[in-house]
From TrEMBL:
Xref: InterPro entries: SET_dom (IPR001214), SET_dom_sf (IPR046341), SETD3_SETD6_MTase (IPR050600), SETD4_SET (IPR044429)
Organism: Spizellomyces punctatus (strain DAOM BR117)
SUPFAM superfamilies named in the record: SET domain
Protein's recorded name: SET domain-containing protein
Top-level taxon in the UniProt lineage: Eukaryota
PANTHER family: SET DOMAIN-CONTAINING PROTEIN 4, UNCHARACTERIZED PUTATIVE METHYLTRANSFERASE
Matching Pfam families: SET
PROSITE patterns, sorted: SET (PS50280)
Entry's Gene Ontology molecular function annotations: protein-lysine N-methyltransferase activity
UniProt domain SET: residue ranges: 23-257
Length: 428
């Protein structure tokens, strides 16, 4: 078996053979992020940090990918781009093929991605993060079942094993274990790039929408990085330009976009220590609290109004800002529904402005109740995490989930402090 240094050297040689010879960056290990890309020389604003030639991009149209897909389905257009790339990686993992140098440097597991965390840690994730992870698990199972040609009766077995050929209603496909496909699915999900489109998982068209980009996917994310990225049709390469300078020896970063830590943990399997985009989703907490004077009937009326005007859900709290306008508006509608015998037709317009003082006090009390409910949940989750076995506490997944909850506590306490400050100002 090759050592890590030998694998890196082999990968570098393979890149050169594919037409890539990057002189500005090199792979390196960093204390806080692990493997990343280091500047070999000073890089100025506006200079490209990577230019991946088309010949190196792995897409659904790459001949090796099309050949793999056809060996399973006979028609490469029947699978989505994500399914095709995942199938290709899973297949390549089991052979000594052309892409072995790249496969060797991919993570061997993705246990920091929320969907693949150990059950004892997964159970302590925030609700919305559990929901995202569960949706991903379902997506992977469905993709696997489609690739394997499972009939409806056999789809429930998809997460456990490949089809053994005993069911006459299933298509006969080459062997592919669910474990290998799951690994490949998350390898694609955590590493693919979009080629000048915001759509990620759609059926094929003449032009691929996503790609795997060997070398580029070793660049790490930070919210501070400023870049311009996209496929350059003239140069026939995927190019990333930096909008900030780097000194030799510094780690060079890219920016995946304005994502909070819950999204990063679900999609990519990491969190940032100081993430300015962090927020707390409180939809479920809002549904569980009861406001002063609220009745079953008034709540039903309020919910009908919220649903009718598209104001149900997407309620958030932020560290250095007021609660989201949608959250405050929803609470105002609930307050008005509880105090008025007949809710005015324009209530959806009224809810964006402060109500009369007594009614607005109930709104602020509602926000405070939500905050208290979130804090209680956070304290319970952190206690549950602290009670896990030592081997679980030593995992990266444990520390990441713990940070998500600590960030949540900081945000909620900040909101409560601002509420208290406003109350003190009003009483002066």
């Amino acid at each position: 078996m090759r050592s890590r240094d030998q694998q890196l050297d082999h990968f570098t040689e393979w890149l050169r053979g594919k037409g890539y010879d990057q002189h500005r960056l090199q792979l390196a290990e960093f204390p806080e992020t692990g493997r990343g890309m280091m500047a070999k020389e000073a890089i100025q604003v506006g200079q490209p940090i990577v230019e991946i030639p088309r010949s190196l991009l792995i897409t659904c149209k790459t001949p090796a990918v099309e050949a793999t897909v056809k060996s399973f389905s006979g028609d490469s257009t029947l699978l989505s781009e994500h399914q095709s790339l995942a199938l290709f990686l899973a297949h390549q993992r089991g052979i000594l093929g052309e892409y072995r140098p790249y496969i060797n440097l991919l993570p061997t597991h993705f246990t920091t991605v929320a969907a693949l965390m150990p059950k004892e840690i997964f159970n302590h994730l925030p609700w919305e993060l559990q929901a995202m992870a569960s949706a991903q698990r379902t997506h992977v199972r469905r993709d696997y079942a489609r690739i394997m040609g499972f009939c409806d009766d056999c789809k429930g077995k998809a997460e456990y094993s490949s089809k053994d050929g005993s069911c006459p209603n299933c298509c006969t496909r080459p062997s592919l274990t669910y474990t290998d496909f799951e690994w490949a699915w998350f390898a694609v999900n955590t590493r693919c790039i979009t080629l000048n489109t915001t759509q990620r998982r759609i059926t094929h068209s003449d032009t691929p929408k996503i790609a795997l980009a060997p070398m580029l996917d070793f660049l790490n994310h930070t919210s501070e990085a400023k870049i311009q990225a996209g496929f350059d049709a003239t140069g026939q390469s995927y190019r990333i330009r930096t909008l900030m300078p780097y000194e030799p020896g510094e780690q060079v970063f890219i920016n995946y976009g304005p994502h909070d830590n819950s999204f990063l943990l679900a999609e990519y399997g990491f969190v940032l220590r100081h993430n300015p985009y962090n927020h707390v989703i409180v939809d479920r907490y809002i549904d569980e609290i009861i406001l002063e004077g609220e009745t079953v009937d008034s709540r039903r009326v309020a919910n009908d109004i919220l649903d009718g005007h598209g104001l149900r859900g997407d309620y958030t709290l932020h560290l250095d800002d007021d609660p989201s306008p949608r959250l405050t508006a929803a609470l105002r509608i609930r307050v008005l529904s509880s105090v008025l015998k007949s809710v005015p037709p324009n209530v959806a317009d009224m809810c964006w402005e402060p109500l009369v003082p007594e009614q607005e006090r109930r709104v602020q009390d509602g926000i405070r109740c939500v905050c208290e409910a979130v804090l209680l949940h956070a304290e319970q989750a952190l206690r549950g995490l602290s009670g896990l076995e030592a081997h679980s506490k030593e995992s990266l997944a444990f520390s990441m989930v713990q940070q998500v909850w600590n960030d949540t506590v900081a945000i909620v306490k900040g909101v409560m402090q601002r509420l208290a400050d406003k109350e003190d100002t009003c009483q002066m």
